[in-house]
Amino acid sequence: MKEKLMKTNTTEIAKAYYTALNKKDIPSIEKYVHPDIQLVSPLGKVSGKEDFMESIAFFSSFLLTINVHTILGSDDQAMSTYDVEFPAPIGLVPTAGLIIFKDGLIAKIEIFFDPRPFN
User: Reduced to 3 DSSP states, what percent helix, strand and coil does the chain have, rounded to the nearest 5?
Assistant: First the structure.
């Protein structure tokens, strides 16, 4: 009898990640993250779980809310659209994110937004 491989539910993991981020629940975020995670954004790149978690803690200290509009997933990735709200003068930042999974964990996040309000 062939053993079925457990399929990663990428949309559910992405939803849980964004929910934890919106709550600024850093310990919950960590359980979804692969040790070799990469973060790529218009503001820079981060590699490795320790540096990623530091970046997320810093980011969450400034964000007010995240409002997720859409999450679409496949076997090893999820694509999302959401708004991130920061205090003035930055305000609302429309964002898209591509999350790539490895071993059922988030291995790469690439986010797309207009970086001009941050300069």
Answer: 30, 40, 30
